[in-house]
Input
Amino acid sequence: MNPIPILELKGGMRPVKNEGGGGGVSFPKKFHFNVSVVDWLIERLTEVHQYWSVDRGIAKALVNVHYKRVVPKTGRISALLAENGHNQAETIRGARFETLLDDNGEPYHRHVFTHYVEVETIAQTLKCLEGFKSVLDSRFGGNVEYQDTVEINKKSDRVGAYSKTMFLKLLKDVDSVADFSWPNDTTAFEGESVVSIYDLNTDTKQLMLNFGVQINDDRIYNKTTLRLTLDEIQKIQKNAPFLISMGVSNINEIPPVDEQSTPQTDLPLFASTYPKPNGEPIVGVIDTQFDTSVLFAEWVTFENRITDSAIQLDHEDSAHGTAVSFIIVDGPSLNPNLEDGCGRFRVRHFGVATKHGFRSFEIMQEIRRIVKANRDIKVWNLSLGTDAETSENFISPSAAELDALQHEFDDIIFVVAGTNKRREAGSATLRMGAPADSLNSVVVNSVAFNDESASYTRVGPVLSFFCKPDVAYYGGDGHLSDERIKVYNGGLLPVAVQGTSYAAPWIARKLAYMIHILGFPREVAKALLLDSAAEWRRPEDVNRKGYGIVPRRIEDIVNSKTGEIKFFIFGHAEEYEMRNYQLPVPLQNGVFPFYARATLAYFPYCDRHQGVDYTCTEMDVRLGRIEKNDKDKYTVRDIKRNRQGEEKSASNLEENARKELRKWDNVKHLSERIPEKRKVAKERLDSDFWGLRVITKERVSDGRRNDLAYGVVVTLHEINGVNRIDEFESACLANGWIVNRVNVTERVEIHNKAEEEIQFE
Output
C-alpha cells in the first residue's frame, strides 16, 4: 500500500489586527471590597519604605508585590508604584510563585513580582493609598460593590480627587494585591556557585565592589550572571541580602545511570572496513570526548574543546560521547529493533567535558562559541546534565542560554537528555536537572522497551506548569543486554548501556531527517514530532513522558494514516492574529464526519529574570467549525472550547489557563478524544468551512515578537475510515490555498542529488 502523504498548505493565513477595544476597568459581578484591605497594604508598604529610606548601596529600591493568586498580564498593578513615563512592566525585575494553604488546607500558588523603583515612588504610592482610603470611607462607607463600579464607569467623570479611570485602577490593584515586602535571600549555598543578581542598570563589577567583592571579567557571564565563591556569596548575603535573585550550584556532573557496561560478545564486530560518508547531513554533538580510533571515526569530525593541558584524558573520558555519536551515525546497525528509516548521519563532535563532569558556567560560554562558529549545523544533541534538581521558580542559566540561542538563531534546535536519577536515589521522585529545563529545546526522557518509564526517570514540569519533558523514547532499562541500547564507545566490542543520554540521539536523528532531508522548518519538524507522540490520547503521566513516546519509524511521523488527513502550515506572526476561515473540511450529508487535533510549536524570546513568567510571547491556536458569535461576526468554535481573551472567558483563572490550556507554553496541543465505539459526526454550524486562528500576545510591548515563526500540524480523523485526502486537497486549491504533497521518496532523491559531487573533466 502506498503511503498517504501529508499536505503543506500555504498562502491562506491572513493577518488581522487586534479587534478588541480598551474599554473601562471591569470587575466580576460578585465583586465586594472593604477598606480594611487598604489599611493593611498601607501598613506593609510603610515598612518597605522605612527599610529603603536607609542608604542600602543601590540607586533605587526593590519591592516585592505579592498577589492573591496567579495573575494574567492584565491583572498586574497599573496604578500602584507607577513612575512618570514608565509602565510598571518596565520596572519588573523578577517573578516567582509562592505556595500557601487555603482554608481547606489545600496548597495554591500566588504570584510575587519584584519591582525596581525610586524610593520616592514608594512614598507617592503611600500618599495615593491614604487619599484613596479617604474617598472609600467618605463616599462609599468603606465598602464598594459591583454595582458601584458599573455606575462609576457609566456616569462619573471624577471620584473624589481621582479620575474615574485612576480610581477604578486603584480599586483593582488593591483588590488583587495581598502584601508588600523586600527581597531577602537566605539560600544555603554549599560552595562556588553561579549566582544571578537583580538587574539594577549599573556596572556589575562596580556594584560588587560596593559590597566588598572584587570580581574579574572571566567570572562574569553577563551583567547579572556571575560565578562566585562561597565566601563572596556570604559577603553579599550579609551586606546586601536583597541583591541575589537566584543561584544554582556551579559544579555539575554528568549523571549516566550505568557506565560500567560489560562488552557484548554475542554481537557482531564491526567489519574491517566501514562505508565512507557521502554528503549525509551533519548533526552537532556537545558531550564528553570522542575516541578517534573507532572504525566509524571517518563519519565524525572531532574537536577537543578542553584547553587545560593539566587534564590527562583516557578512554573513560570519551566513552559517553563516543556512544552518543555512534547512535547518531549508525545506531540501527546494532539496534535493529529501533530501525527508524533515517539512514546514517555525519557528526561534528565537540568534547567539552570529561568523565568527572563539567562547570555549567564554562559550558554556557563554550556552547555559545560553538554554535556561532558552526552555523551550518541545524540540530544539536546535548546529552549532558546535572544531578541537582531544577528550581520551581527560575530556569537554570544553562537552559536559559539554550533558549536564547534558539531564539537568536532561527534555524537551530537542541535535543536535550532529560537527565537520570542515580540508583542510590531509590524510589524518590526527583525533578529533572539542568539543562533539561530548556523550554525551546526538545527534552527527551527514557522508556524501557515495554513502553514504561525507565527506573531512572526524573520528572517535570518546569516552573510549576511548563510541560517537560517534551517526549519519551527508548533509552534502555534493565540488567540484560536485550533490555539496553547497544553502542560502540571505543574498542572492538559493543557494549549495552542505558540512560536518557542514549534516548536523546534517536530523536536528534529524526529531527535531522525532517529538517535536512525533507526540508521542514524546525517549527514544523518539532510540531510533527510532538504530534506523532501525542496521537489522539496524551499519556496520563505527562511529567515523565511528555506528549508521549515518539514512533520508531520516520514514516509514522511524516505520513498520514489511512482514513486521516494531515496537513501543516508554516507562517509568521505578522499581526496579533493570523487566521483563515476557509478550511474546506469535507462534508457528508450536511455534517462533518471528523475528529480533529492540532499541534502548534514556536520558539519565543525568554527572559530568565522574569522567573515563572519566563516566556515573553504567547501563541495560541484555535481550530474548529465556523459559527457566528453574539455580535453576528464569524468566529471559530474551538475543538477544546478555548475562549481565552474573549469576553465570556473573563472569569477564567490564570492558573487554570496555564495548566489546562498551556497558556504561555511554547507548545500547544489540542485534541478531541476518539471514542472506541460510537463515533459521532459534527453538525454544520453557520458555514461549510472550518477555521484556524493563531493569536500572538506579548507580556511586554517592546517588539520582541518580530514576526515570530510558527508551525501548526492538523490531523482530521474520518469516523468511517474513508480516505478523503484527494477531496480535501482539491477543495483547498479551489479556495485559494497553495497545496504541496510531501512525497518523502521524491524529497530524499532531491536531497541525494543535491549532495552529489560533480566531477569536472
Q: What stands out?
A: Residues 278 and 719 are 45 Å apart (CA to CA).
